[in-house]
Specification:
Strand content: 5-15%
Number of strands: 12
Shape: globular
Number of helices: 17
Radius of gyration: 24 Å
């Protein structure tokens, strides 16, 4: 085995050579007036060099940090796998690249941060760099028509008009003394009672849900992260079918350091898999056995229903099978139902786990829900835990000390959730209709471009297959394609960020204004056209070499 010193020297030499190649590419591009095709070749070569630079720098960082921290490996191994495509990216300009390398240098030279602080800082920068760029350069049809269009983040922007009108009504305004003071860390009693009534009604629970089983915190990721803290010790693990929402990876690394064991799903249809990315109990059994043989302590299973990013809705029979599997091995089950209200295909029933007459293991079944997706109010930062386990509910309440919601926001949420007439007769029908129209528009465009996709009836996004545009079909090429979209001022979420085992999948959010979608699809078409041209030239070169 090579010594750390030898490995470091080898990495530095590789880094030096790559830097020299990169500088040569940039200088050549600036010194010569090139025809368009040559510019595109240089642009692609520069992108490839930038990817190598970041990977090598991350390896150097990891080597320096080895023995002190391990999460920086995320930047190398996962290329920023968390956060909906906001991965560790170099920018398109040399000065921005220098700035990024300076950030990496600071990550391991800081005298102010602890090892964990350094770890978190590097993780944050690697994940949210491109989203930060987006916030500073957002598309606006009048003020900034060349800005970024973000179809990476799953936000429902289709009913902002309805929500703005409802939130501006008189019943939303209150400055009652109790709202201006500290409240029960679990959430105000009036809100927990309304949440229990809301979930009883919309989840079709067989009996009234108990407000004492409700804990309210500032977002569903906070609920998940807090749950991992109270259910696990550092190093414990959860089974996680992949692909899955990347925010959970980030949340699991901030506090509890819980390991997420990936249960990889396949897109290929077989005798046992009747549809793409199907989860079976056999897969869970296999993953649990393999983890146990490696000495890992698996504490639970995490399910997302409706699914993010696939858009699948688990049937009640499938849910029961997964829950029975968990009971056999004394595993907790965390079920994220935040997309409950986004099922826009009325022929698809949504069976909430709260609708089941009897749960195999009610004391180890925990439901997460929030208003960010169906109501399009992610800025409210509202997440709910419903659990029958009194010990878990009590322990989770402690996190309200750090992650509670303001009293005034709790009042507004309570007024919103109790307005059943407006929700049933105005908001839900309009939201469903607009989701259907946006989904029709996007899928029609995808069909015209001959892009395969999963045609599902829930969620705010479509899971699309761009393998045809990768040669070879690797995650490195997926990253380059992602960056080509960035060059065209378009943000999509690459499959690697969802821990998908197959390169080439992307998540495309469609719950946006029609104009934004039209411009976004024009940019997508242009980027894919550039990629096709690049691949054709690359294949021609390879053929000539042979």
């Amino acid at each position: 085995m090579k010594s750390p010193h030898s490995r470091l020297m080898e990495l530095i030499l590789r880094l030096q050579q790559t830097l020299e190649d990169y500088i040569m590419q940039v200088e050549t591009r600036h010194l010569h007036q090139e025809p368009e095709l040559e510019k595109q070749r240089h642009s692609q070569a520069t992108r490839e060099q930038e990817v190598k630079l970041v990977q090598l720098m991350c390896q150097v960082v990891n080597l320096f940090q080895s023995g002190a921290t391990s999460s920086l490996e995320l930047q190398l191994d996962l290329s920023g796998d968390v956060g909906g495509g906001q991965q560790a990216q170099t920018s398109r300009q040399p000065d921005q690249l220098s700035h990024q390398l300076s950030d990496l240098k600071a990550a391991f030279n800081s005298n102010d941060l602890s090892n964990s602080g350094t770890d978190i800082s590097a993780l944050y920068k690697s994940i949210f760099r491109d989203i930060t760029a987006y916030h500073g350069d957002k598309y606006d049809e009048e003020k900034n028509p060349s800005g970024f269009i973000n179809l990476a983040i799953s936000e429902n922007k289709l009913c902002i008009d309805l929500m703005t009108e409802r939130l501006s009504r008189g019943d939303m305004t209150s400055t009652d003394d109790a709202l201006l003071q500290y409240a029960d860390w679990r959430g105000h009693a009036f809100l927990r009672e309304e949440v229990a009534r809301f979930l009883t009604y919309y989840c079709k629970a067989p009996a009234q849900l108990d407000p004492e089983n409700v804990v309210v915190l500032s977002g569903c990721c906070v609920v998940f992260s807090s749950l991992t803290m109270v259910l696990c010790d550092p190093g414990d693990a959860f089974l996680f079918p992949t692909p899955f929402y990347s925010g959970f990876t980030y949340a699991s690394r901030l506090y509890s350091k819980v390991e997420l064991i990936h249960v990889h799903l396949d897109s290929e249809i077989t005798e046992t898999n009747t549809h793409p990315f199907q989860l079976t109990v056999g897969m869970l059994e296999k993953a649990l056995l393999e983890a146990s043989l490696k000495g890992k302590k698996v504490k639970g299973l995490v399910l997302i229903n409706p699914h993010n990013p696939l858009g699948d809705v688990y049937s009640q029979d499938s849910l029961k099978e997964y829950l029975e599997f968990a009971k056999r091995y004394n595993l907790h089950v965390i079920i994220d139902e935040i997309y409950m209200g986004t099922v826009f295909d009325e022929s698809i029933p949504f069976p909430s786990v709260l609708s089941m007459e009897s749960l195999p293991d009610p004391n180890r079944t925990h439901v997460i829900w929030g208003t960010s997706k169906e109501f399009g109010i992610s800025g409210f930062r509202f997440g709910v835990l419903y659990t029958r386990n009194k010990e878990v509910a009590s322990a989770m309440s402690a996190f309200g000390f750090l992650h509670s919601i303001s009293g005034i926001t709790q009042h507004k949420l309570c007024q919103l959730l109790r307005d059943r007439e407006w929700i049933d007769n105005v908001f839900l029908p309009t939201n469903r209709s607009r989701l259907q129209a946006a989904h029709r528009y996007i899928t029609k465009k995808l069909k015209a471009l001959k892009i395969p996709f999963l045609n599902r009836g829930s969620g705010l996004f479509v899971w699309i297959n761009l393998k045809e545009y990768l040669d070879p079909c690797t995650f490195e090429e997926e990253l380059l394609l992602y960056r080509r979209f960035l060059d065209n001022k378009l943000l999509l979420s690459p499959g690697k960020s969802y821990m998908c085992k197959e390169p080439g999948w992307f998540r495309l959010t469609f719950s946006d204004k029609t104009l934004h979608l039209k411009v976004a699809m024009l940019r997508l078409t242009e980027a894919l056209s550039e990629q096709k041209q690049y691949l054709a030239e690359k294949r021609m070169k390879d053929a000539l070499r042979e």
